[in-house]
Amino acid sequence: MPKPYPKEFREDVVRVARNRDADTTLAQIAKDFGISESCLTNWMKKADIEDGNAPGLTDADRVENRELKKRLRLLEQENEVLRRAAAYLSQANLPGK
Is this model's pTM higher than 0.70 or not? Predict the structure, then answer.
């Protein structure tokens, strides 16, 4: 897998692509920067999402979702431990034992 391009490079390429002349194509800009046209298109879509111009999850949303899912898993595990402990302790306190 190739090494990802630096963020500054991606931002510069997107800025150039957004400010292009009417006769300049995305394919030409991509060729000038040494990337594929599909790569440039994907970067532009992601930039639109990050800027709030298109619907979708931003990087910050993705990070927050990942952290929330980790926290949810931890809380579910803690809840299961407490549920089992309560069941065990209630069995220990039954009369006749």
Answer: no
> HSE (CB half, 13 Å, CA atoms) of 82?
6
Which tokens sit at 27?
A: 């394919």
Output the DSSP codes for the chain: -PPPPPHHHHHHHHHHHHT--TT--HHHHHHHHTS-HHHHHHHHHHHHHHHTSS-S--HHHHHHHHHHHHHHHHHHHHHHHHHHHHHHHHHHT-TT-
pLDDT tens per residue across span 12-70: 999 999 999 888 999 999 999 999 999 999 999 999 999 988 999 999 999 999 999 99
Q: What distance in Å separates the CA atoms of residue 26 and residue 14, rounded to the nearest whole number?
A: 10
